[in-house]
Amino acid sequence: MKTQAMRRMFTLTILAVAAVAAGMGAAEAQAARIKDIASISGVRDNYLLGYGMVVGLAGTGDDVKNGFTKESLANLLSRQGLSMRDKDIKADNVAAVMVTANLPPFAKIGAKIDITVSSVGNAKSLQGGTLLMTPLRGADGQVYAVAQGAVVLGGFSAGGQSGSVTKNHPSVGRIPNGAAVERELQQDFAQKRALTVNLYRDDFTTARKLEAVINAGVKDVQAQQVDSCSVNVRIIAPQPGRVMEIVSLIENLDLPVDAPAVVVMNEKTGTVVMGESVRISTVAVAHGSLTIQIKETANVSQPLPFAPQPPQGTPPVKAKGGTIVAPGGQTVVTTDTNVGAQEEKSQLVIVPHGVTIQDLVKALNAIGVTPRDLITIMQTIKEAGALQASLKII
User: Fold this and answer.
1) DSSP state of 202
2) Which domain holds residue 55?
3) Is 311 a domain residue?
4) Following DSSP, what letter does each residue of 262-328 receive, concatenated?
5) Shared-domain flag, residues 131 and 215
6) Looking at 166, 181, 196, which one is the last position of a domain?
7) In DSSP terms, which residues pair with 103 in a beta bridge?
């Protein structure tokens, strides 16, 4: 029963992840759309950042004694015609926040984007708060969007003096469509005569295949590999609007992806993931475990009611059967300790040369290893030089 449970645990962690890749076979490379594994150089999001104030909190805001919240609130009120700089401000329904957003590459003026609001003070929760108008700046210091709206949380926090309950992270919230774009990024993409396609994961073999696929699948272009990550695409016969058509054709082409042989293991969770290209040379594997169990039992000898107290310093009496009996009215506690050791019998399994991931899983299942056992086994096989894969432990 124990071996079956171990096999089931191993199968859930390894077999579910690797079965699809193993079924396809190692010799056949997996194909993916270029748009899913690569990007066009220059077409990317831009980060925006702003500092603002969230108001309307139900006593869960910042302590205005901290410098930046008090100064921000005073400046905010001054812009509304109220001079509060030299006055003692007491408020717990205001929170200072940082606002972040991603500006899409071709966002137009008036477009709406999502924003994230994060507390920078000691506010307990942003629940029910409203973000006041906040300018969002790019890396160049220019204002590209303006944010405002009601904060939406994915959790809550409530409690009193003696206890509290918190779900998720109440000091961070989002505002869907909470910012309006006020400035467009200056791009002349339609006039380009050359493009660069960059792979998300650099690989010389995949980049070489990318060059061949683009040359074979798109007319009037010439693709040339630059390195393990990039392929330059030059438009031979430029026409108005042709660039957009070429990008659309390129990103929908299927590209065979050549993935390296990698085994990734997470020791904290016991998760093991293997790529389909993993191979193992002929090796014999034996794995067993030693279990030591220590059990302690407390024995208490309680005196009878109204028993006379013995003279001070009288030792306990050992009765028949080894039981400790307290003299007179004393209470004696003793501990019985039982130590047992059990070592499982391990089987020697021979894994033949060049097996696939499916064969490897079957072989290791035969000796009933768990995911944590597999981590030790794979490390040992790697040290023996029989694992033809990169071993990564996270």
Assistant:
1) -
2) 46-181
3) no
4) EEEEETTTTEEEE-TT-EE-SEEEE---EEEEEEEEEEEEPPPTTPPPPPTTPPPEE-GGG-EE-ST
5) no
6) 181
7) 46
- 322 in any annotated domain: no
Q: Are 384 and 283 in contact (CB under 8 A)?
A: yes
Query: From residue 254, how far is each of 39, 54, 196, 270, 334 by CA, in Å?
Result: 14, 48, 17, 35, 75
Which one, of 279, 261, 282, lies nearest residue 353 by Cα? Answer: 282
User: How far does CA 72 lie from the centroid of its chain?
Assistant: 35
What is the Cα–Cα distance from 75 to 81, expressed in whole angstroms?
10
Distances (CA, A) of 66 to 72, 95, 134, 208: 11, 11, 21, 58
Domain count, the chain: 3
Burial of 242 (0-12, 13-18, 19+ CB in 10 A): middle
φ, ψ at 282 (rounded to 5°): -60, 125
Q: Is 17 exposed, middle or buried (0-12, 13-18, 19+ CB in 10 A)?
A: middle
pTM of the shown model: 0.63
172 and 50, same structural domain? yes
User: Does 273 share its domain with 389?
Assistant: yes
Which tokens in the block code for residue 60? Answer: 């869960």
Per-residue pLDDT for the chain (394 aa), expressed as one digit of tens each? 444 544 444 444 443 334 333 444 433 457 889 989 899 888 888 999 999 999 988 888 888 777 777 788 877 877 877 776 666 777 788 889 999 999 998 899 999 999 999 999 888 888 889 999 999 999 999 999 999 999 998 766 666 565 566 666 788 999 999 999 999 888 777 778 888 999 998 889 999 999 999 999 888 889 999 998 999 998 887 676 678 888 889 999 998 888 778 888 887 777 778 777 777 777 676 666 544 455 656 666 666 665 555 566 666 555 555 555 555 556 666 666 666 655 555 555 565 665 666 666 666 666 667 777 777 777 887 887 777 788 888 7
In a domain, 52, yes or no: yes
> Are 391 and 378 spatial neighbours (Cβ–Cβ below 8 Å)?
yes
Q: Say if residue 103 is in the same domain as residue 140.
A: yes
Sole residue written with tokens 């699809």? 20
51 and 175 in a single domain? The answer is yes
Integer Cα distance of 45 and 138 in angstroms? 11
Structure token pair of residue 293 = 């169990």
